[in-house]
């Protein structure tokens, strides 16, 4: 994926360029302030820059909206606020206690914490997400490998980490896939799509016709899953 820069309020901001078999340009700004433009495969960098400058005002307004929203994060990690896990909404219940732990009880994620400091609560929740992501993603990989194993795709090494602009990535030469830890917040069908997508890259590294043909064989409804995942970021 290529990238370039656009100046917004005196700051050079990088935007990602994703080339696809499309006739139009699509612009996206994500909550983590990532800027992406989806473009036709044959378009030049100069033309992309010219076109994105025409959307500068929209990009600036979108960034400002997410920046304002980001500044309110401290107020969200309170008892009664909502978080997501496997595509479902749960209420936070924060309890002041000497023994720290997190448990999912009914419709509540109960966070037992020594100090109701927002950073500590956030760290505990991130750790809880990661622990569950390791277990759940490995289950999904095992499930997906049953469909692609016969095509000479072997069990990859999986790494889980936070990523700003991708749900997953693949390093074919090292038989390695990387999955965004935040994906554990989304539904099983979205998780399966991302993992299957990256497993297919172990056989076809590029987003070419062969890749999408193969993905359609092993996951016929991938477009539906992809569309649901993309709508989460609009």
Model description:
The chain is of the alpha/beta class and 234 residues long. It folds into three domains: 2-70, no CATH class; 74-117, no CATH class; 130-231, Metalloproteases ("zincins"), catalytic domain (Zincin-like). The protein contains six helices and eleven strands. It has helices at 45-53, 56-70, 118-148, 188-201, 209-218, 222-231; strands at 2-8, 11-20, 26-29, 35-40, 82-85, 88-96, 101-105, 108-113, 157-161, 168-171, 176-180. The strands form three sheets. A four-stranded mixed β-sheet has the order 1-2-4-3, with helices on one face. The protein has a four-stranded mixed β-sheet with strand order 5-6-8-7, with helices on one face. α4 (188-201) packs across α5 (209-218) and α4 packs across α6. It is flat and about 60 Å long.
Based on the model shown, name its key terms.
single chain, about 230 residues, alpha/beta, Zincin-like, 3 domains, four-stranded mixed beta sheet, 6 helices, flat
Summarize the main sheet. 4 strands, mixed
Strand order of the largest sheet: 1-2-4-3
Task: State the end-to-end distance.
Answer: 20 Å
- CATH third-level topology of the largest domain: Zincin-like
Number of discrete domains: 3
